[in-house]
Structure prediction request, 138 residues.
Amino acid sequence: MPAHWFEGGSPPPKSSRRVWCFGCIGTAVSALAHAQLNAEATRDLHIVNGALMPDQRLIKVYKGDRLRWRVTSNASGSLHLHAYRLAIQMQAGQSRELAFTAFATGRFRVEWHGASAPAQTASAHHAAALAMLEVQPR
Ligand SMILES: [Cu+2]
Prediction:
């Protein structure tokens, strides 16, 4: 082996360069998957007597996703997402859309305040949430 091969230090081992490459590809693939699956997240929320079906009660998204909730209710009231300073008034039988970007990460309560029970408004903040919005970091 010629002596000049060792001048200026040895090259990095091939194995470590390969690992670094796979790491890059993995990161790119998962970022792409998140972007494609969650960039625009539409949900139908059908509120019946102030409650949602169990499979609609957890909404998981990623930070930066654009959310579009198509809300219906059989009773009048209001839907609140206090952490995001969002509220919509609902009339019985009406459907409304709530569109916003998930700008903050965390678990947030989505609340329903029925119009037929005004005294319930304050206590509703201590009752079970209508749904939980879970925003994960990307
Ligand atoms: Cu509220």
